[in-house]
Amino acid sequence: MRQNPSFAMTDPAELRRVIDAHPWATLVGRDAQGTTASHYAVLLDPEREDLTVLGHVGRPDDLVLGLGREELTIVFQGPHGYVSPGWYGDTAAVPTWNYVAVHLSGIPEILSTEENLRVLERLVDRFEGALPQPRGMWAPPNDDAFVRRLEAGTVGFRLTPTRVTAKRKLSQNRPDEVIENVIAELSGTGPFANAALAAEMRRAQDARRAARAARAGS
Predict the structure, then answer these.
(1) What sign for the dihedral angle of Cα 49, 50, 51, 54?
(2) Whose CA is closest to 21, among 101, 105, 104, 78?
(3) What is the pLDDT of residues 22-60, one digit of tens each?
(4) With left for phi above 0 and alpha for psi between -120 and 50, is residue 56 left, alpha or beta?
(5) How far apart are CA 75 and CA 39, in angstroms?
(6) pLDDT mean over 131-139
(7) pTM of the model
(8) How far is CA 178 from the centre of its chain?
(9) Cα(first)–Cα(last) distance of the chain, in Å?
(10) Which end of the chain has less Cβ packing within 10 Å, N or C?
């Protein structure tokens, strides 16, 4: 992803927030045959405070992704959506697409069987925990043999990125009144209404205003 300084995200807390909120990721790796993209849920490592993430792939995706041998890029896609030029007012403009994305790149560490089991359990608990009657990975009718047989068909990994590219393209290059109008349109009921993107734009806009106020008061 080509970076634009105007849209760069650099705050680790914000990067962790986006990763945590959007765990369904795209994994891009390569082997001797070329590049492959796969899709898996990936979580932040709960034992780390940086951008280290944990995940797994099904065999033989570990081979085509070059897992543990080649650089792996993990793409987390945050809120995104269409922005009409009509929302900018009476000015020359073209459509655009606002979005938030975080790319983590590095050579992942392959996990042991027991580490991988813990990662798989965390993944299940993360999503089952939202249900009124969550069913854990080890809950009956699953038994130890069943769980371990499934684990054997996966490869767990831990990735501490050596390169991070994060982009928040949310109309920051537009005047405040235009940004507010885009937020209002996204918050409405039209064909491109997008509450998640509107909330992300509001968060970024409020942060920019707070930063401007702090600079003015210093």
Answers:
(1) negative
(2) 78
(3) 999 999 999 999 999 999 999 999 999 999 999 999 999
(4) beta
(5) 9
(6) 97
(7) 0.94
(8) 27
(9) 35
(10) C
**How high does pLDDT run on average in the chain?**
96
SS (H, E, C) the chain: CCCCHHHECCCHHHHHHHHHHCCEEEEEEEECCEEEEEEEECEECCCCCCCCEEEEEECCHHHHCCCCCCCEEEEEEEEEEEECHHHHCCCCCCCEEEEEEEEEEECCEECCHHHHHHHHHHHHHHHHCCCCCCCCCCCCCCCHHHHHHHHCCEEEEEECCCEEEEEEECCCCCCHHHHHHHHHHHCCCCCCCCHHHHHHHHHHHHHHHHHHHHHHHC
Q: At what angle do helices 144-151 and 113-128 cross, to 10 degrees?
A: 110
Q: By the 8 A CB rule, do 39 and 26 touch?
A: yes
State pLDDT tens for residues 157-204: 999 999 999 999 999 999 999 999 999 999 999 999 999 999 999 999
Burial of 137 (0-12, 13-18, 19+ CB in 10 A): middle
Nearest-CA neighbor of 179 among 196, 198, 192? 198
Euclidean distance between CA atoms 161 and 102, whole angstroms: 11
Distance between CA atoms of 44 and 46, rounded to whole angstroms?
6
